Amino acid sequence: MNFRDINLVAGYERKMTTRNFVFVFLTFLLVSGILSFHVFVHSYWSVDSYAFRMDIPSAIPSTNAYIFCVFQAFLATFIAGDFIKREPSRNTNEALLSRPVGNAEYVTGKGLAIVELVVMLDIVLMVLTGILHVFAIDSVFSPSLYLFYFLALTLPAILFTTALIVCVKMFIRSRVLALLVLLFYLWASLTLLPFLAHGITDFTA
Question: In degrees, to the nearest 5, what angle opens at C-alpha 25 toward C-alphas 189 and 22?
């Protein structure tokens, strides 16, 4: 496997994805939604009816990581694997076809681009949440806990969901059917799967 080709494909896909209106719109909703949740639930301006216990230092980092896992899965459902349907109809891969890029490098590079974008998005969100944590939340701030939950929960969830979404969209040719299957799995992961086999099939566990 040629890592140079993978990096080439990934760089190209990152540019294409960041120009996608759906990606920009869902990214804005993700960041603003999670930050608004922290403001109205955890900060000095929290709503009393949503009392939240914050005497545990890991409360904010773990909540932030869990919510991001759910939202990133929803974001990736609409973004990851779109190259399968997008490029044959728009001929947007002509620059890559001029070079000998194998199928393995091509798919890996496309998936890696989504992983990199979501990881960067999570880092930005952790920084913003950390700033909010320091200045507007009456709770112990520990940067190491944010790093721990990133490595133990968020990153594995990003890798798993991206790979799953790309595989589903490769095998299910119908875009609508693939989205329905993935959205059903996301719903099941939040409501049904945590109670089956001790959560072994739950990507947020």
Answer: 80
